[in-house]
Design brief:
By secondary structure, the chain is of the alpha/beta class. It has helices at about 10-20, 35-40, 55-65, 80-90, 115-120, 145-150, 160-165, 185-195, 210-220, 240-245, and strands at about 5, 25-30, 45-50, 70, 95-100, 110, 130, 150-155, 175, 195-200, 225, 235. The chain has two domains: about 5-100 and about 230-245, 3-Layer(aba) Sandwich (Rossmann fold); about 110-225, Nitrogenase molybdenum iron protein domain (Rossmann fold, 3-Layer(aba) Sandwich), CATH 3.40.50.1980. The strands form two sheets. A six-stranded parallel beta sheet has the order 3-2-1-4-5-12, with helices on both faces. Strand 10 (about 195-200), helix 9 and strand 11 form a beta-alpha-beta unit. The longest helix is centred in the middle third of the chain and has 14 residues, at about 80-90.
């Protein structure tokens, strides 16, 4: 039996796990990859479940562990995963709470509510595009005219994501597999190497290096196009939950 289950291999998930461990609160952290597991220090009151779960698997885990609450600290753009966690909690009768990182923006950015809106705008733009949206959104960018020559991708260094990008037709020379966040200098070097005129990014916050990307793009004279976060569940800031845990209010 576990007091708290945390979903998410994110920075926020790690912060929550460390805080729960410090307070000796029994917790189980669910992460999808071995990389996520490697960022944690299980032991004592903290356990880790590695591997993706579908909705039925989540519900079964919740019924087995019988936690007092679930903290969904998955990526702000993992809306499909969050819907499954929320549904599993409803099925198992466990209180669900969405935990999000603070959002960051910068002046002069173009904002888009979804990929369809962003793609419609891109069709009217010229120049090289540097996408920091990740592998999940990469196939949609094949709708950009001459995408094989115009679009560069920066994705996490995973076989699944790389295979998806290659299968979509992106040339290997335009795919950068690296783990961020990156400094302003590193971003600027990549943007200049690609000869990019447009940066595609998400509202990734400080944990995702948003400010560094935006500043590097500004120095390179690029347009910054931002894909907004899904709005189905605004959630609550991770700082509020860390305070709540430290004060024993969970």
């Amino acid at each position: 039996m576990t007091d708290v289950i945390v979903f998410g291999g994110t920075t926020e998930g790690r912060e929550l796990a460390e805080c729960l461990q410090e307070r000796r609160i029994s917790a189980l952290v669910c992460v999808a990859t071995e990389y996520g597991t490697a960022q944690l220090r299980p032991g004592g009151t903290l356990g880790v479940h590695t591997g993706g779960l579908d909705e039925a698997g989540m519900a079964a885990l919740l019924r087995a562990e019988r936690p007092r609450l679930v903290l969904d600290a998955t990526h702000p753009y993992a809306d499909d995963v969050s819907r499954k966690i929320r549904a599993a909690c409803g099925e198992a009768g466990v209180p669900y709470h969405r935990v999000l990182r603070p959002s960051e923006t910068a002046e002069g950015c173009e904002f888009f509510s979804d990929m369809a809106e962003l793609l419609a705008w891109l069709r009217g733009q010229s120049g090289v595009i540097f996408s920091a949206l990740g592998a999940k959104e990469a196939p949609a960018l094949t709708a950009v005219p001459d995408y094989e020559n115009r679009v560069w991708l920066r994705i996490l260094p995973g076989v699944k994501g790389l295979s998806a990008c290659l299968d979509a037709g992106f040339p290997p020379r335009h795919i950068i597999c690296m783990q961020g966040p990156f400094s302003r200098e590193m971003n600027e070097a990549m943007f200049r190497a690609a000869g990019a005129a447009i940066l595609l990014t998400k509202e990734s916050g400080a944990a995702g290096g948003f400010a560094e990307k935006a500043e590097a793009a500004r120095r390179c004279g690029m347009t910054v196009a931002v894909l907004r976060r899904p709005q189905d569940d605004p959630g609550e800031d991770v700082a509020a939950w860390l305070t709540r845990i430290r004060e024993g209010r969970i």
